[in-house]
Design goal:
Blueprint (H helix, E strand, L loop, with lengths): L1 E2 L7 H19 L9 E5 L2 E9 L7 E3 L4 E4 L10 E9 L4 E7 L2 E2 L15 E4 L4 E4 L1 E3 L4 E9 L15 E8 L18 E2 L3 H10 L15 E10 L16 E6 L18 E6 L2 E7 L4 H5 L6 E5 L2 E2 L3 H9 L6 E8 L2 E8 L1
Length: about 350
């Protein structure tokens, strides 16, 4: 595979490239890492730490696989019926927007994740701060607790069933704004950010591998349902993301180990999920150890060129790729955040 970034100017590109290299290096180092209780995403000059803590229990033990995928190493049977909280800890000097998806649904509004700063609502974390997300946010004052449940009871049933049993974290950096470690922030303990006025109005209206051979304990597939309502106040704040797509992201499989195993498919299967965009095709999912992963594609990438064709839609990408014979090469033009990449790889 040949990877050649297009040279551009500006400090924003330098920062984005720095984050990209940090994420790639971290992903490689953690490909077969030990069991731990915190999921780290390296960003800016530090990292975001994500922890899932069931009520009355210690944090879930997890292990890194590869390509930003993690897996719960305990027994799902022990979790059913327990409420839980997701903890976000910003250990960097920058303010971050963190989009959290449970079973494929945004924890704000329970709508499918879009993978875009312009569409997804997220939590805004000042530098060196921590946020506790106890459940699905119903409005500016109330939330419903996250509740581990059998998969058929998941809030995603009938919507994003392919993602039941997963937790998705996407991180955005802020454009043109810097914070210092000792700066005090007067905001409340929790807050969220509307991408635009239309999403704000909608929210207001709604308120009236190789897989590292992990041996996990047996248990049924699970997802997340809704528990009791609790007081959890949030409010809108201003945030302008430096990129349309996340600068880093990770997916934790807490509900079924098989979700990160390549299912039996014909050889033409690419292990790639795409969504159409005005620029071409947005990568919404990549299976580990799949042809798409081996080429170097990552979730959030935008494919804006394939074999000389510009702005290809998902069907065109699949048609061209599957039409290749073994030994032929594929030429991709990819936009990753604000960086343009050229990917060349044998099929």
């Amino acid at each position: 595979m040949t990877l050649s970034p297009r040279h551009q100017r500006g400090s924003r590109l330098d920062a984005a490239l720095y984050c990209l290299l940090g994420v790639l290096a971290a992903g490689s180092a953690l490909a077969h890492g030990p069991t731990r209780s915190t999921l780290p995403l390296y960003v800016a000059d530090g990292r975001l730490e994500v922890t899932i803590r069931p009520d009355g229990r210690s944090a879930l033990p997890i292990r890194a696989l590869r390509n930003g995928h993690w897996i719960f190493t305990g027994s799902t049977a022990d979790l059913v019926g327990r409420s839980y909280t997701v903890s976000l800890h910003n250990r960097s000097s920058e303010r971050l927007k963190v989009v959290l998806g449970i079973d494929g649904l945004n924890v704000y509004r329970k709508v499918p994740l879009a993978g875009s700063a312009d569409e997804d609502i997220g939590s805004i974390l000042p530098p060196w701060s921590q946020r506790e997300i106890p459940g699905w946010q119903l409005d500016s004052r109330q939330a419903q607790r996250f509740l581990f449940s059998p998969s058929e009871w998941s809030e995603a049933t009938g919507e994003t069933e392919h993602a039941i049993g997963t937790l998705r974290v996407e991180v955005y950096q802020e454009a043109r704004r810097r914070w210092s470690r000792d700066r005090r922030d007067p905001r409340p303990d929790s807050e969220f950010e509307g991408a635009d006025e239309s999403s704000r109005k909608l929210q207001e209206s709604e308120s009236a591998s190789r897989e590292s051979r992990v041996q996990r304990a047996p248990g049924p597939p699970i997802g997340t349902s809704s528990g009791e309502e609790v007081d959890h106040r949030v409010r809108y704040v201003s945030f302008v993301a430096s990129t349309v797509t996340p600068v880093t992201a990770a997916t934790l499989n807490y509900g079924s180990e098989s979700r990160f195993r390549s299912p039996p498919r014909p050889e033409s299967w690419l292990g790639l999920e795409l969504r159409p965009t005005s620029q071409g095709s947005r990568v919404s999912g990549v299976w580990p150890n799949s042809p798409a992963a081996r080429v170097g594609l990552e979730t959030g990438d935008i494919i804006h060129g394939i074999d000389g064709r510009q702005r290809p839609g998902p069907q065109e990408v699949f048609r061209i790729w599957r039409g290749k014979e073994v030994g032929q090469y594929l030429f991709l033009k990819v936009r990753r955040g604000r960086i343009d990449l050229s990917l060349k790889a044998p099929v």
